[in-house]
Amino acid sequence: MQDVPRNDSIFGAAPFNNGLDAVITDLGLGAVTGNPADNGKFKVPSLRNIKFTGPYMHDGRFETPEEVVEHYNKGVQLSETLDPASRLPEEAPTNNAGPGG
């Protein structure tokens, strides 16, 4: 069997904040690193076999893939560490903390 080249868009990349909560109560990576810029960031799993792998999100809050899509369409919550890819252009942070917060 051949090795499949790693493609982070398929297999998940570095942890990031995908806008689940405006007020971060689950620190995620921040609980491990102690860095406030990592608060609310979590690993992202592969999309392979997604319809068989529910519930979804790090805390299981969504039961179906459709609920996840609805979150990204209308439910993203702004927070200091929200990943830039999850922000609308007018929601760009006003501080100079760099990517992800």
Account of the protein in words:
Helix content is 20%, strand content 0%. Mean pLDDT is 78; it is low at 1-11. The protein is mainly alpha-helical. 17% of the residues are buried. It has helices at 8-11, 29-33, 65-75.
Please tally the β strands and state the result. Answer: 0
Task: Let me know the largest β-sheet.
Answer: none
Distance between the termini: 41 Å
Anisotropy-based shape? globular
Please give the share of residues in helix.
10-25%
Rounded average pLDDT: 78
SS element count, helices:
3
Structural class: mainly alpha
Element-level helix/strand string: HHH
Strand content: under 5%
Radius of gyration: 15 Å
Query: Low-confidence parts lasting 5 or more residues at pLDDT below 50?
Result: 1-11
What is this entry, summarized?
With 101 residues, the chain is mainly alpha-helical. It contains three helices and no strands.
State the main characteristics.
single chain; globular; disordered N terminus; mainly alpha
